[in-house]
Amino acid sequence: MSRLVTQDLIIDVPGRQGGTPLNLTIEPGQSWGVLGPNGAGKTTLLHTLAGLKPPRSGHVKLADKPLAQQRRRQIARELGMVFQDRQDGFPATVLETALIGRHPYLSPWQMEGADDYARAERALERLDVAHLRDRLVNTLSGGERQRVAIATVLTQAPAIWLADEPTNHLDLHHQSAVMGLMAEQAAGGQAVVMCLHDLNLAARWCDHILLLYPSGEVCWGTRDNMLVPSALEDLYRQKLAVVEVDGAPVFVPVKG
Amino acid sequence: MYRQLSLPLLLLVVLALAAFSTALMVGSASLSISDVWAVVQGDGDGLARTMVMELRLPRALSAFAVGGLLAVAGALMQVLLRNPLADPYVLGLSGGASIGALGAMLAGFGGVLMSGSAFAGALFSTFLVFGLAHGRGGWTPSRLLLTGVVVAAGWGAVITLMLAMSPAERLPGMLYWLMGDLSYARTPWPPLILLITICLVLVPLGRSLNVLARGPQQAAALGVDVRPLEWGIYVVASILTAAAVTTAGSIGFVGLVIPHMLRLLLGNDQRLILPACALAGGTLLVLADTLARTIIAPEQLPVGVITALLGVPTFLFLLYRSR
């Protein structure tokens, strides 16, 4: 299983000077939550980790080799990305959309085979969108499209998941189902890195947390060390109340 | 999966053959299908032989090649710019070619010099647009599109100026060229060979193009080397369009309408759409050209008029019917 390592990484957020150099190691089986206010650079961090955006300085290494020196096709077999927004100027069906997850594994002359179809269908079923398989994605609701996007990455079956707000647009049941899927992936030996807005999902489902401040400062560690109310209040500049439900802390914004 | 792709293509091949036989049969002197068949087999009387083998067949092959090139170029531009309204001329290419061709006509050149001049104009416009859109940052589809539209408008003004300053006896030829006219086509082989080669090259790239249609970041995340692929599409689409324009002037609508029609009918898998575009674009232009040279025979209409008159209502109908 591959590890994702950053060496003195500073992400390139326009108009921001400096920041804490990131020296992270994302091990197989870990589930990371990236927390931070709007504009702190969560998406930029994720895109940098995926090699889609060059860092201002430092390196990202996948399986001990810098991402910049690897072929995209090779990277795509190890690393899958759930994007926050999607383009569908040329609409395709839900099944076709999930099938493009097989792209990194197929040679140019190869057509998708029965096995690829089976993987895509299983992924659609897992995300509860199998009944929509022949619908065009642009006719779906926001939450359904989000689940199709996650199904595409599940079809891709990467060792490392980078998910930008995977619970966006999802109702409560599907939020919980998607977080369950991420936890299941981590339990199966994959690594998961998620940007999240919902502290409580992070508190319940992630084992490592990274806090990203608008100034570029970063701190990271295990969940129990990071989810300290005073640090979170500082991060969001919002007063919080904490209660414990079902063995996990629940953070609620309060007035004042 | 292969079967899914081959059935529509087979149908289109049948349609193309039907269009060819019509083009060979119809004209100043009509031939029956058995006359044409006899000629194709190597028999037939002298007059029919000359008519089919030396006049109608080369012209039909040219029409097919040009239509196919334009439709494939249009489909590629639409994927590159991720804009369903893109056509082969959207980046100012036909304007550049027109300036070259009209300039050559004004100078009294014809034949190879005129074709060469048109080709040079098309490529010049391509590089101009790409260079300007690239600017100091990287180019984005919207920036490329805007630059192309503005450059095309500039060419339009120059064309009008040239027409206004031209001697009256040269005007009809220039106008016909601008509307697209296959009577300028000489040998069908260069565009035809280009079309077949490009289709063979594009088929293995089809899936990458499908992924690219989802946006460059999604494509990169799925293992596509986006920048080289985009460059490749841009260069290929430009060469295809330049070859088409050089052969037959700027024929409109084929490059916009055919990819759209096929997407409405066949879905959006580029592995199917691109070869289908070559066949359907070619078929449409063979039929349109047959009409163009028969409707007001012995006079000929510019084929661009026919493609627009056929293409626009068909397209609007399909759009109206679709969801």
Automatic annotation (TrEMBL), chain A:
Keyword Lyase attributed: no
Keyword hit for Transport: yes
A GO MF label: ATP binding
Keywords, comma-separated and alphabetical: ATP-binding, Nucleotide-binding, Translocase, Transport
Residues covered by the ABC transporter domain: 4-239
Function of the molecule: Part of the ABC transporter complex HmuTUV involved in hemin import. Responsible for energy coupling to the transport system.
Entry protein name: ABC transporter ATP-binding protein
Species for this entry: Vreelandella salicampi
Automatic annotation (TrEMBL), chain B:
Annotated compartments: Cell membrane
Family: Belongs to the binding-protein-dependent transport system permease family. FecCD subfamily.
Domain of life, source organism: Bacteria
Gene Ontology MF annotations: transmembrane transporter activity
CDD domains: TM_ABC_iron-siderophores_like
Keywords: Cell membrane, Membrane, Transmembrane, Transmembrane helix, Transport
Membrane topology: Multi-pass membrane protein
Coarse class of the protein's main subcellular location: membrane
Protein name in the entry: Iron ABC transporter permease
InterPro entries cross-referenced by the UniProt entry: ABC_BtuC-like, ABC_transptr_permease_BtuC
Segments passing through the bilayer: 62-81, 88-107, 113-132, 144-168, 188-210, 231-258, 270-288, 300-320
The organism of origin for this protein: Vreelandella salicampi
Gene3D superfamilies: ABC transporter involved in vitamin B12 uptake, BtuC (1.10.3470.10)
GO CC aspect terms: plasma membrane
